[in-house]
């Protein structure tokens, strides 16, 4: 055998690991275009966010803030209503806004308090873990941006506020503007909780658990540990860090579904993770009202202009299943903006 042939054979075998590495990535991207391997920029972002501090210092007696995380794949139709929600000068140092917008859609900058609030984003798809990634991206950016962010409220472009900002702020922080300054879970585990829906007895929950195949979720998530809930939540800073730090459950929930009709990863990942890691630190209830009466194709009831009234706002605020008020509501059609603006000052933001 000539030396030339021998060298070629050696080079071929040496190149096999590289060929398999790239071919496997190609196959994943080809079969499931909405699933990709963990990307270095996200992993780096999450690691940095997980390393931030959880507690405020008492040196300057700072007031904690609420980070509002807008998850959207279209224009923020209700930006004028939210603008009024944030508009008071007394509120301007008590909140931050972050927007994850579909980079492939022409999402207009609504200006005002929303101007320059967009974070680096990636495309999202239904029935895929991309919505989980988007929420984690929002949380990570908010964690890094401001250490005073102590609550993180995830909302959509279809959400509206049901009260004034001051009411929402005082409701979350219980009128104590420095309440989280010295907070430590070991001192008072239930003092400040995350508002996230955590359900274990929903219809077809077993089918949802099996959406990726039999035994795929094992051993990390057993069926008795699997939970269902809304994808919208209000998390404390310690839970936001828990979410961006997680890799153990994420490696399961990022797998593609084979039963797409039961695949709602964003409604499963967050309640399951927080239930397994710190159930006592969560209320089990959410602060966003959603009407599932007459739902279709996984979408909740859509409120239209003819539905908007002071009575609707008052009804949406009250919960029949928990001791908590609803602070936000969805899902409203873009055409509902005008009638909502007409009752904003006298009803919504007067908290009556």
Describe the protein's topology.
Layout: H1 3-31, H2 40-50, E1 65-72, H3 79-86, E2 95-101, H4 130-145, E3 149-156, E4 160-161, H5 165-173, E5 194-197, H6 205-209, E6 234-236, H7 237-245, H8 250-253, H9 269-278, E7 282-284, E8 288-290, H10 310-317, E9 328-330, H11 337-348
Parallel strand pairs: 1-2, 1-3, 5-7, 8-9
Antiparallel strand pairs: 3-6, 4-9
Helix pairs in contact: 2-4, 2-7, 4-7
Give structural notes.
Pfam families: Branch. Its main location: membrane. One of its GO terms (molecular function) is glycosyltransferase activity. Keywords: Glycoprotein, Glycosyltransferase, Membrane, Transferase. It is a single-pass type II membrane protein. This protein is an alpha/beta fold and 352 residues long. It has a single domain, classed as Spore Coat Polysaccharide Biosynthesis Protein SpsA, Chain A (Alpha-Beta Complex), CATH 3.90.550. The chain has helices spanning 3-31, 40-50, 79-86, 130-145, 165-173, 205-209, 237-245, 250-253, 269-278, 310-317, 337-348, and strands spanning 65-72, 95-101, 149-156, 160-161, 194-197, 234-236, 282-284, 288-290, 328-330. A 4-stranded mixed β-sheet has the order 2-1-3-6. Strand 1, helix 3 (79-86) and strand 2 form a beta-alpha-beta unit. Helix 2 crosses helix 4 (130-145) and helix 4 (130-145) crosses helix 7 (237-245). It is globular and about 55 Å long.
């Amino acid at each position: 055998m000539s030396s030339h042939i021998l060298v070629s054979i050696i080079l071929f075998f040496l190149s096999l690991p590289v060929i398999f590495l790239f071919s496997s990535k190609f196959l994943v991207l080809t079969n499931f275009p909405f699933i990709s391997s963990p990307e270095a920029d996200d992993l780096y972002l999450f690691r940095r966010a997980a390393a931030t501090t959880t507690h405020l210092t008492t040196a300057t007696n700072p007031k904690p803030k609420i980070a509002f995380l807008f998850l959207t794949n279209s224009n923020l139709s209700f930006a004028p209503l939210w603008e009024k929600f944030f508009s008071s000068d007394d509120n301007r140092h008590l909140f931050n806004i972050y927007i994850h917008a579909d980079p492939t859609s022409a999402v207009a900058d609504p200006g005002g308090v929303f101007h320059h609030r967009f974070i680096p984003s990636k495309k999202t798809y239904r029935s895929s873990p991309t919505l989980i990634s988007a929420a984690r991206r929002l949380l990570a950016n908010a964690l890094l941006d401001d250490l005073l962010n102590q609550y993180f409220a995830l909302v959509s472009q279809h959400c509206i506020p049901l009260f004034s900002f001051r009411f929402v702020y005082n409701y979350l922080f219980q009128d104590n503007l420095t309440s989280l300054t010295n907070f430590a879970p070991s001192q008072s585990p239930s003092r400040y909780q995350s508002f996230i829906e955590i359900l274990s007895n929903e219809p077809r929950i077993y089918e949802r658990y099996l959406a990726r195949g039999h035994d795929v979720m094992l051993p990390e998530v057993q069926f008795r540990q699997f939970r269902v809930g809304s994808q919208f939540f209000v998390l404390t800073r310690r839970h936001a860090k828990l979410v961006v730090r997680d890799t153990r459950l994420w490696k399961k929930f990022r797998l593609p579904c084979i039963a797409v009709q039961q695949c709602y990863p964003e409604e499963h990942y967050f309640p399951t993770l927080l239930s397994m890691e710190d159930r006592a630190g969560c209320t089990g209830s959410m602060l966003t009202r959603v009407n599932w009466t007459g739902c279709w194709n996984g979408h909740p009831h859509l409120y239209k202009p003819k539905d908007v009234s002071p009575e609707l706002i008052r009804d949406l605020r009250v919960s029949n299943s928990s001791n908590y008020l609803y602070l936000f509501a969805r899902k409203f059609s873009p055409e509902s903006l005008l009638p909502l603006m007409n009752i904003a000052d006298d009803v919504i933001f007067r908290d009556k």
